[in-house]
Structures are given as structure tokens and as C-alpha cells.
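help with this.
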Amino acid sequence: MAVVVVLAVILLAMVGHSSGAWCVCREGLSEAMLQKTLDYACGAGADCGPIHQNGPCFNPNTVKSHCSYAVNSFFQKKGQSPGTCDFAGTATVSASDPSYTSCPFPASASGSGTTTPVTTTPSTRVPTTTNTRPYTSSTGGGLGIPSDLIGNCCFLVGLAAPSLMEALITSRVVPLRILCRKLSSVSADFSCLEFKRYPCRSGRVSVMNHPKLLRPVTASVQPQELSALGHEGNIVPSKEIMDLWRDVEAVCFDVDSTVCVDEGIDELAEFCGAGKAVAEWTARAMGGSVPFEEALAARLSLFKPSLSKVEEYLQKRPPRLSPGIEELVKKLRANKIDVYLISGGFRQMINPVASILGIPRENIFANNILFGNSGEFVGFDENEPTSRSGGKAKAVQQIREARLYKTMAMIGDGATDLEARKPGGADLFICYAGVQLREAVAAQADWLIFKFEPLLNSLD
């Protein structure tokens, strides 16, 4: 009899796990990156109920295991569609079943979700687990949230009905999906919501002024408002965007905070003793709140770098390239794709970067610091297109007109990079947020990435 039971167990195991594809979070990532991926997956529709406290997949209580369960749930819900197991390069498809004791990982869409549909009467909804408590208007925290929960745990916030989500977005109220944040920075009426305990990862509460909503559900939300709603809709690129990337004939890269991890003018200013004031102007320029030419002139006037100071800076502070950029540029060039550097920074500081990457000097479009006969600072070349707002777009248009490229992409982090995507300019704007995440820019990107690996892998 025992032999029969053992054989039956083995047979069931073979039937349930003999083959399949699973999505898992990659090894070697920081807990912060894994937590971000976990948040994205849960908010984008993954069934994260089993990894709640007291859920069958809560243990082992690690970010890695919870992250893998969440991305796999999303992957299976999407029918294992190409591109749905990437999450900006933090996840990958595996042929090995990651299931463990008491926690089976689904390998098909039909088994990926077990969440009970919500009702349309939130005021009478009864929690289904002991770690869920409904809203009560007498509690504190300024949000109607039980005061003992604030600052002590994370929350998964569930809306009572899809129509309510639409109503909130239409009225410009930002509904919450995931809160592992400081809640006092949010002001809204949460009487329609319930709060579920969710496992904390960092051991502390961090600040986020705009809680994440992972997908807008109405077309009335304008792109510039998506900064408050999250960007997860463009982390996984559409087939159209992926096809554009694979057909690209030329790629234009921003330099500061994209090809390099630093903002060059900020670093030079800091070297000259004016770092803080200049960095504030840079943030305003990259966010698009002031014209670029105004910010450029203001920054240079704050420290007026001499030729000798620039040369000293270049000797003492060589370029610091972003991880993966050398491999990506090498792959692009191997595929006969032309590479350009288009920057609001200065040629004097970009030339060494181009040399490292093997990019010809004629493929650099950047500003030029002007010096007098004694090497003193006298200004910058205002004839360079990148010295003013819209200049990167103009540079891309000039390149396209001269080389007759059919498809071009612009990769960068700032508002001036986004401007390059326009008729006659770049067909595709990819926002690289591996150094700086600029909310308003990321929200309008065709593709949002946090590392260059997804671009590199998609070229294979």
C-alpha cells in the first residue's frame, strides 16, 4: 500500500511539474531593487495574496522569494507573453520550478490567481483573514487609518470596485495600491478602502509624496499627470515599441546621468567650489521647469571655469560610465547601428567618454565652453543647438536629414531628451532612470528602463 502511495505522489509531481516556464527574480540584486519589482508586480495585477502574512507562501519571508512569486504570477496571468518577465531587467524566465514546500508556483494563467473578486459595497465588506481590518472613521493618522498601523507595517490597499477606481482618477484623486511609505504626506478620503497588512522589507518607513498607482484606467488622464500615478505601463514595452527598437538604425544617447553616472556640469562646479547652487539649477533644467539656455547661463556664471581648471578636473576625475553602457554601445556598433552622443554638457568633458566608447568625434553634439587668450572663461558657444531648449530635438533632426535614417531612438533621463521625440526627430524615446528618475519625463517615455540590460538582450 505504501508503495502505491509513493508512486501516486511521484506521478502527481510529474504531471504538475514535468515541464513549464516560470518567471523569477534575478540573483545578485539589492533588496531595494527586488522590493521595487515586487511592488510593481503586485500593483500591476499579480496575485500577491499568498505572500501576505499567514499566506501559504509568506515563508520563507525574504524579498527574493516574495519577488519571484509576484513576478511569476504576473507572467502567468499575461499568458507567458514575451516581455512580461523582464521588469526592467530584474526578472528572467526559468525552466526550473521554483515551488517550495506548501507554496506551488503556478505555471499557467489558470492557476496564477486565487483572489476573490471584490464587492461593490465596501462599507459592509467583511475581512477574509485575521490580518485584514476595514476602515473605521474614528482612527488617527490624518487618513482614517488605524494609528497602530502607521509606520509599523506596509499596506496593500484594495479598492472596492473598478468603477470606483475610474471615478477617483477622473476626479484627480490618486487611489493607492501599494503603500510602504510615510502616509502623512497623502491627503484623501479613504472611507472606501480597506488596508491589509503586508510584509515590510526595509525595517523602516521611507517617504514617497506620490503613492504608486500602477496603471491609469481612463483615457482622461494626461501624460504629465502620470507622474503621480506610476509608470509601470511602460516598463514592459509593447510589441510596437520593441519592433521599433529592433529596427533602429541610429541611437542617440544623452551623456549626463545616462551614459555617465554624474551630471558633468554639477561635478565640475563642485570641483570649483559651487556644487550645491549649480546642482539646484540642473535639477530645474532637467525637470523642464526653466528654459535650458537660462539654466546653462546661470550655472556657468556661478563658477566661471577657466581652461586650467577644466584640464585639472579632467585629469583628477576621469569619466564614470553607467553599468552596461559599454556592452550596449559595443553591441549596437556590432549590429551596424550608428551611435551618437547628444548632450547639454560640454565637449571638453564628453570627448574622453566618446574615446572610451569608440564613438567618433563627429558623432558628438554638445556645448562648448569658450576661453580667452589667457584661458579665462568668457562664455559658451550659443550657436550650438544643444545650448537651448529644444536643441536636442534640433540635433536629432539634423542628423536624420543628413544621414536619412528610417528609424532613430533617443535614450536619456531629462526633459530635453524627451523633446527629441517628435516628427522628423527620434521615433522612440527610452527613459533611462538608472541614475535619476525624473517623474514627469518617465511618465511620457515609450519605454522606461533602470538598467541597459533589457535593451542589450532584445538585440540578440
User: Anything to note?
Assistant: The chain is about 35% helix and 15% strand. The first strand starts at residue 22 and ends at 25. The chain has three domains: 19-111, 116-220, 239-458. Residues 3-18, 110-231 have pLDDT under 50 and may be disordered.
